[in-house]
Amino acid sequence: MHTAYKSLHALHIKVTWTARYRGDATPEDFPLPGPEALELRMQRPNKFYMQATATSDDGKPTRYLIVSDGTNLWHWRSPTNTYIQLPAPATLADMARLLPDDAVGTYDGVTWSIDDIAEWDLLVNDIDPMAGLAGSGMVVALGAPQKIGHTAVDVVQFTLPASPVLPLAIEETYYLSASSHLIQGCLLTARGKHPETGKDMSVTMRAAYDVLETQPRFTDADFAFTPPQGATKKADATRTIR
Is the residue at 239 inside a domain? Predict the structure, then answer.
């Protein structure tokens, strides 16, 4: 999978995460691993667009943008309606070191939480999330091949059995295209006893890839940044913009 993403010249995805909570499980205790909605556009060597949208604790939507048009790099957040502008990096691999430490994460104006975005890690950070799961002690197994729509997918499952320390059985499943080896879907489940209350609970989280294009026809407009109405540019582009 890692090699497949490194060899991509361009990519366009739209991903939607949903969650179902049962028993004593709540979104506050078991939040989604990343934004509820994500759109990512990438064209090497250094054009990039990523918009992430989530819902804050007060029920309001919160967004952030990372955009590179090949000349400039911007990062904007909705709660503060502020952005920074920097010279674009020569490659995607240089992008993370230029951005604030909290660039990829949901901020509601008070609290911040990191977002786990597999494609960001694979394309920008050069990190394979599946290798990280395997290295964490989770048991790796191949499931039976399936189809998502008309796409044949290989199924890779990572399982952590329940224990006295963590009375939850956790399973994370990746659905990878059998031909391109790109992520086509993800399923995360946790079942057992709530670690604090001891009551039965279960959580099912699912990522649906509504768009996945490896030969998109981008134009300059796809990597343009227009400051939202009332947005303020930060004069000091330091590594924090909270």
Answer: no
Buried b (16+ CB within 10 A) or exposed e, 11-27: bbbbbebebeeeeebee
Alpha-carbon distance 162 to 170, whole Å? 7
With respect to residue 238, please indicate whether it lies within any of the assigned structural domains: no
Could you check whether the bond before residue 145 is cis, i.e. omega within 30 degrees of 0? no
**pLDDT tens digits, 89-116:** 999 999 999 999 899 988 777 778 889 9
d(Cα 186, Cα 5) in Å, to the nearest integer? 16
Dmax of the chain from CA atoms?
55
In a domain, 84, yes or no: yes
- Identity of residue 36: E
Type of residue at 102: D
3-state secondary structure at position 120? helix
What is the extent of the structural domain holding 66?
2-233
Residue 114 covered by a domain: yes
62: domain CATH number is 2.50.20
Q: What is the pLDDT of residues 73-94, one digit of tens each?
A: 999 999 999 999 999 999 999 9
